[in-house]
Amino acid sequence: MFESLKSKMKSLFSKAKDDLDEKEIFKDETEQTTTPKTPIQDSQPEPEQPKLSRKEMLKLQKQERASGKDTHKSASVVSESGGKKIKDSALDEILDELYFTLLEADVALPVADKIKEGVRANLTGKKYDRSYSLEEVVEMSVKDAVRDVLELNEFNFDQWVEEQQRPTVIMFVGINGTGKTTAIAKIANRLQKSGKSVVMAACDTFRAGAIEQLSIHADKLGCKIVKQTQDADPAAVAYDAVEHAKAKRRDIVLVDTAGRMQTNSNLIEEMKKIVRVAKPDLKVFVGDSLAGNNAIEQAKVFDDAVGIDAVILTKIDTDAKGGAALSIAHTIGKPIAFVCNGQEYDDIVMFNTEWMIDRMFE
Length: 362
Ligand SMILES: Nc1nc2c(ncn2[C@@H]2O[C@H](COP(=O)(O)OP(=O)(O)OP(=O)(O)O)[C@@H](O)[C@H]2O)c(=O)[nH]1
Ligand SMILES: [Mg+2]
Fold this sequence. Notes:
single chain; 362 residues; alpha/beta; Four Helix Bundle (Hemerythrin (Met), subunit A); Rossmann fold; 8-stranded mixed β-sheet; 3-stranded antiparallel β-sheet; 11 strands; 49% helix; 14% strand; binds guanosine-5'-triphosphate; binds magnesium ion
């Protein structure tokens, strides 16, 4: 997962370590007495920190995050009492390299810009504790900038479900083969494990075999499915499913829809009709992370047509690049609810910034 982004980032960080002479990069400003204060500097001098190896530092970062006290952000190694400062020329070189690394990994332009400028802001004019290498400072700083982009993306699905009226209707949309039906089965499994009763609505009456595919999942998971024959009106199936859930006091209705090219206006109209009839509480766009920037374009079209509330990004287990994962939510302004990372029912993870950062960098 994300192998190419990971290895390019590693080589960027180690370029900072190996290719660049620290004496050339860092201006040691230890002797300077009138130091301009940056907003992130504390008035109290930092206690001296023991020097840690990169491995030890990453381990410590992880432990601290787990315990909720995250002191190893790049701001935490800015030194009050003196230290080394990255020269502007070296910083430009690192930032250019970072920018191309991000674009090669299919990160959308505005997101690559935001990360680059975030790193520039983190590193410009700051003096770093001399016990940290350039590699460590750059790595922390890039992670901070990526974290800023990802943190806007979180959507606590479990909490959201708890807060809804019953039955709660969730509709899944997206182009052919992105993983809608599989994601529905995974979410049904998850919801059932947490004690919710689930009804599946087989509203893909367009593709031969789609009703059968969803029925197999419903059988395996032991949940109710409402279906009609192929070519039936999908809005009528959705209506029946919601009525069934109301009558039988079921908690959640998961509406499967036909995969459609965003350019097919008939199918888009049909989807709008499902929305009018079933009045979903949540409309989820399911995008294939392998589609990179195309997934972002698709999401925008579906959002214009029916309005989407959240995103599920599938197949990240086979995605070497990682660009869509990093860019989609920020670019379309909708949060990521889940990422799917395999074909088994348990291969679904509620989106979480630190989970993603761990996979992108380690
Ligand atoms: N590796 C991997 N494969 C996945 C994942 N999610 C879905 N798939 C596979 O992708 C293929 C398509 O999945 P479906 O769930 O049928 O996709 P869909 O969006 O419902 O497709 P249509 O109904 O044709 O629009 C299947 O072979 C799934 O097993 C995932 O997270 N990882
Ligand atoms: Mg399907």
